[in-house]
Design brief:
Helix content is about 25%, strand content about 40%. The chain contains two helices and nine strands, in the order ααβββββββββ. A four-stranded antiparallel beta sheet has the order 5-4-8-9, with no helix packed on it. A three-stranded antiparallel beta sheet has the order 1-2-7, with no helix packed on it. The protein has a two-stranded antiparallel sheet with strand order 3-6. A hairpin with a 5-residue loop joins β4 (about 80-85) and β5.
């Protein structure tokens, strides 16, 4: 009976066992962190939408969108959606949405969408990498 009681009092092997368990745990955690950096798991944060400034105007048969400032943006990253304002059905999608000259939007660039029937439209320019609206407007083609 005294031998059984001595088992509980003999704690010489506890410290090395806990030490080995901690070393294995630290090794596994370290391997997981290194693997996440090597395979790029933690580096795929979505791109933030750029700061852009557009204006939209209309004449009797066209919609004119002009870049008035902000960051330079690749037109390949933009998409223009034109909705009928009355029921929000899509009239037209321009993807990629590039300016009249080149592929990059910067102050002074513009795009003309024509012919456009007489109606009221809602425009939305989407920055595709972040799937975020960067410009909206409502206008009437008369």
């Amino acid at each position: 009976m005294k031998k059984w009681l001595n088992i509980w009092k003999d704690e010489k092997a506890v410290s090395p066992v806990i030490g080995v368990i901690l070393m294995v745990a630290i090794t596994v955690i370290l391997a997981a962190v290194i693997a996440s950096f090597v395979f790029g798991i933690g580096s795929k944060a979505p791109k933030a939408a750029p700061t852009v400034q557009f204006t939209a105007s209309a004449n009797s048969s066209a919609i004119i969108i002009t870049d008035t400032g902000g960051q330079i943006v690749n037109g390949e990253d933009l998409k223009l959606i034109i909705y009928y304002a009355s029921n929000m059905t899509v009239y037209k999608v321009v993807d990629p949405f590039t300016p009249n000259k080149g592929t990059y939007w910067h102050a002074g660039n513009y795009s003309i969408i024509s012919p456009v029937p007489k109606d009221t439209y809602k425009l939305a320019i989407i920055y595709k990498p972040a799937n975020q609206e960067v410009f909206t407007a409502e206008l009437t083609v008369q």
